């Protein structure tokens, strides 16, 4: 299922965080949340994921239930994606995984945030065959899809990308705060059983 809304819509954070929480609640046997933010810090258009990751790291650092992969300092991209996914599979085997990435789309959809209830296929818009990521993913349409996609990614407004990243970060922080009490590791029944 696809949920979409423009990032400037005042209801965007509430709308997409609610859809994310509903998706999580369909199967609640997760012990933690992992957010994988895909992209690079070399092109403004492709920096959406790492900017989101850095913002989340600032907001959620120290929270033992949420793990962020892909920041401006340590981006997750095509060259290290497989290694990162192997690490996540070994270290976070029962995690609810949310992927974040930038994408290109039709001109009239620029600025739209999409929450898609299936794994992310990173690099698809640039013809790359990379491993799918996550139980669900958020994409931000940052520019127009066309014959020169690499050039478009290079020449996207960083201010625009930053604004979109701020909204995605709010969505993920809000959803995480709602989801954390329902993770298996913090279930009150589990705590009573262990005491």
Automatic annotation (TrEMBL):
Keywords: Hydrolase, Protease. GO terms for molecular function: peptidase activity. It holds the Pfam family DUF1256. One of its GO terms (biological process) is proteolysis. Transmembrane segments: none annotated. SUPFAM superfamilies: HybD-like (SSF53163). This is Spore protease YyaC. It comes from Paenibacillus baimaensis.
């Amino acid at each position: 299922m696809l949920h979409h809304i423009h990032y400037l819509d005042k209801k965007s954070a509430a709308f997409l965080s609610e859809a994310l929480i509903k998706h999580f609640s369909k199967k609640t046997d997760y012990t933690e949340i992992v957010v994988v933010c895909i992209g690079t810090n070399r092109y403004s258009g492709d920096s959406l994921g790492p900017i989101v990751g850095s913002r989340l790291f600032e907001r959620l650092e120290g929270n033992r239930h949420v793990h962020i992969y892909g920041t401006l300092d340590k981006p997750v991209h095509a060259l290290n994606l497989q290694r990162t996914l192997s690490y996540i599979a070994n270290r976070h085997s029962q995690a609810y995984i949310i992927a974040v990435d930038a994408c290109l789309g039709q001109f009239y959809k620029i600025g739209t945030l999409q929450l898609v209830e299936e794994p992310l296929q990173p690099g698809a818009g640039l013809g790359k065959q990379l491993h799918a990521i996550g139980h669900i993913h958020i994409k931000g349409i940052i520019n127009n899809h066309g014959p020169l996609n690499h050039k478009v990614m290079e020449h996207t407004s960083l201010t625009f990308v930053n604004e979109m990243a701020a909204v995605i970060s709010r969505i993920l922080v809000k959803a995480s705060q709602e989801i954390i009490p329902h993770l298996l590791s913090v279930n009150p029944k589990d705590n009573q059983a262990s005491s």
